[in-house]
Amino acid sequence: MTRDPRYDILFEPVKIGPVTAKNRFYQVPHCNGMGFNLPQTHAKMREMKAEGGWAVICTEECMIHPTSDYSPEPQARLWDDYDVKCLGLMTDAIHRHGALAGVQLAHNGVGSQNLFTRLKPIGPSPQAGVIGVPTQTRGMDKADIREFRRWHRAAALRAREAEADIIYVYAGHDSTLLQHFLQLRRNHRSDEYGGSLENRVRLLREVIEDTREAVGDTCAVAVRLAVDELLGDGGITSQGEGREIVEMLAELPDLWDVNLADWSNDSVSSRFGEEGIQESHISFVKSVTTKPVVGVGWFTSPDTMVSQIKRGVLDMIGAARPSIADPFLPRKIEEGRADEIRECIGCNICVAGQHTFTPMRCTQNPTMGEEWRRGWHPEDIAAKGSQDSVLVVGAGPAGLEAARGLGQRGYQVALAEATTGLGGRVTWESSMPGLGAWARVRDWRAGRIQEMANVDVYFDSQLSPENILEFGFDHVIIATGARWRKDGVGINNTARVSGSDRATVFTPEDIVGGAELSGPVVVFDDDNFYMGGVVAEKLRQDGHDVTYVTSAACVSAWTENTLEQHRIQARLIEQGIDIIVSHNLKAIGEGEVELTCIYSSRSRALAASSVVMVTSRKPNNELYLALNEDAEKLQAAGIKSVQAIGDCEAPATIAVAVYDGHRAAREMDNPPANPDMPFRREYIELDDTV
Ligand code: ADP
Ligand code: SF4
Fold first, then answer.
1. Considering 60, 274, 452, 673, which has the largest number of Cβ atoms within 10 A of its Cβ?
2. How far away, in angstroms, is 664 Cα from ligand 1 center?
3. Could you tell me which of 203, 246, 255 has the C-alpha nearest to residue 18?
4. With a threshold of 0.90, does the pTM exceed it?
5. 623 lines ligand 1 (CB under 6 A)
6. Residue 267: nearest ligand to its CA?
7. Cβ of 576: how many Cβ atoms within 10 Å?
8. β-strands 127-128, 100-106: how paired?
9. DSSP type of residue 266
10. Where do the H-state alpha helices sit in 267-348?
11. What ligand has the least distance to the C-alpha of 354?
12. Cα of 438 to ligand 2 centre, how many Å?
């Protein structure tokens, strides 16, 4: 296939100081939960993007010195020669595919916790840390500032030694020392580094100059700046100081990478932001500098990207999440396969990896984080290992991905679905407020399956064990999903809640299915991810009087990990939903429920004509269990294997279901050599001392 000429502009080279990017696709720095812990995992993950056509691929923030220690979150480091070697793995891997490697040097200043190094965090002035640990920051004196400049310069030299092409000076995300110096609210100094904006910019200017002087002859120097913090007058704004800073430093760096702070504004989830959301804040930058400008905005559509370039908003299309969901996005556009882009759904499960100190996972891209340890490639998969046929039962995310992967391998696949549509939970969940983009999980897979002559889809096919035994497929994969429980069993109630059998008690599926509720409605959330908050929001939009009760200390508590918690809580408050935290639902009576305090067990009554239970889910594993009851029957039917995947095996996130489906497809006739250790481990070099 040939590229659509409308997209030619995206493949023009861009000169960035002494280096040249081969096209306009730029993977901006992004966290990944691998960092210094897993250098090979990290390098291979970045290599996939280079192979997939990105012209520039950057590290996440890379700590320049032990006074900036983000533990337990694993970020990159350039503290010494060991780190140079680790970074070298990544730059080599990127260079193999003709791309440029960028390193985002960082010092977290007031945001450092230094839990590992035990060095005192430093900042422009003495103050409480951003992260909320009970350790305060020491205000830097002039000698500290000189030291900081020396550390940054040394780290830049180490980055060059590791053969990086672009070195960052980073003042973004409300988490870097250089940004803390810019912020009036954090910089209370009265010397030449505080007070006027010119003074507050001084250190940033000096560090850009230091970096250029140290490495600028061979490496490009990029500045990453948050031009707006979305704090109005309380922070830097793109109409005010954000613009003035860019004007003051306009021609100093070789590239401007501009965005919003903090991270939750920059990586806003699709529930709260749309493609191109940053444009109104960053579009001024090109008018005040001649240097190339890169920015992000959850870009997945090549038409939007072209529009950004043609309208003079950006020179390079920055992406973190879209490059995670589809490392081959540029190649697909280049090869005229734009309709095959696996579009990011904006769920921020990837961000949760960083927050839970584990390699990131991606809902759309099940190979993310598995490139090195399992050898999974985001596009390629081994051809089938036999002529066997496979029946996949259930077309939710797990079943769709299993059928797609097996189809790609060349197996003859039948996908049987009880209803008249594909997608399972993704289909009904994506009809809820703010979750529309999640349908992309279904749509991308449906699109690929449609192109495969060897995958047949059967709708209206609620299969029984007898049906399956009659069919005679060689392998059966059961992906029949799960359903929300009505009985209230969950984290805090391990037995059925009294009164939960009443006709006035509902599940999230009932709500989406149009159940008639009378008010007032109580939504009880003992699941504490997104569903309880979304159900409350939907019911309120439908005009109900809603009280949201949660066993956690805040609304949708786990969404802290997806950068959404504060927004969800704000939205519920703004919509007029009453919120009761730290309470369990003990019993449901006529027109009321009994709540008990999680801490004191003190109980109270609350008026409720209807109750929605969002507590836990029950696997739809009846079919799987029935089939496995009689091994002889299976053998007689010629069935060689039956396995349960996704929510049917154990209810979890959509990302887990997709991963399960993908793994089942990869491992058909090709199980791991050692099932007890199904992936490679990274070993650090040990010397002989203890
Ligand atoms: P997962 O997240 O694990 O993919 P979902 O609940 O999203 O699970 O999807 C399960 C799908 O399986 C649903 O579309 C459901 O209609 C379908 N299903 C459930 N039981 C059967 C069955 N016995 N035969 C065919 N399809 C089924
Ligand atoms: Fe996008 Fe979700 Fe994947 Fe992150 S996890 S890249 S938000 S699809």
1. 60
2. 16
3. 255
4. yes
5. yes
6. 2
7. 9
8. unpaired
9. H
10. 279-282, 285-288, 302-310, 321-325, 329-334
11. 2
12. 10
What's at 568, amino acid-wise? I
Residues 95, 107: Cα–Cα separation, whole Å: 26
Beta carbon of 476 within 6 Å of any ligand 1 atom:
no
CB 540 within 8 A of CB 575: yes
Tell how far the Cα of 439 is from the centroid of ligand 2, in angstroms. Answer: 13
**Residue 18 token pair:** 């002494």
Contacts with 125 (C-beta within 8 Å, 6 or more apart), sequence order: 137, 139, 186, 187, 188, 189, 194
Selection from 428, 482, 487 nearest residue 613 by Cα? 487
Ligand 1 mean position, distance from CA 424 (Å) = 6
- Digit-coded pLDDT (tens) for 515-550: 999 989 999 999 999 999 999 999 999 999 999 999
* Best residue for ligand 1 mutational test, from 478, 620, 653 (most atoms within 8 Å of Cβ): 620
pLDDT at 133 over 80: no
| Letter string b/e over residues 379-390, b meaning 16 or more CB atoms within 10 A of that residue's CB | bebeebeeebbb
* Per-residue pLDDT tens over the stretch 421-479: 999 999 999 999 999 999 999 999 999 999 999 999 999 999 999 999 999 899 999 99
Query: At residue 281, does pLDDT exceed 80?
Result: yes
| Residue 431 near residue 512, CB atoms below 8 Å | yes
Distance CA 260, CA 227 (A): 6
Distance CA 312, CA 323 (A): 22
Whole-number Å distance between alpha carbons of 655 and 217: 44
Beta-carbon count within 10 A of 663 CB? 21
Q: Is 101 helix (H, G, I), strand (E, B) or coil?
A: strand
Tell the residue nearest (CA) to atom 3 of ligand 2: 362
Identify whether 262 is preceded by a cis peptide bond (ω within 30 of 0).
yes
Closest CA to 660 of 394, 320, 435: 394
Give the ligand 1 atom nearest the CA of 399: 4
- Contact assessment for residue 585 and residue 524, using Cβ atoms and an 8 Å cutoff: yes
Residue 129 confidence (pLDDT)? 77
Torsion of CA 156, 160, 164, 169, to 10 degrees: 20
Residue 422 token pair: 């594909």
Return the active site residues: 31, 170, 173, 266
Q: What is the pLDDT of residues 153-175, one digit of tens each?
A: 999 999 999 999 999 999 999 99
Distance CA 332, CA 344 (A): 15
224: Cβ–Cβ under 8 A, 6 or more apart, which residues? 28, 29, 104, 168, 169, 170, 171, 172, 257, 258, 259
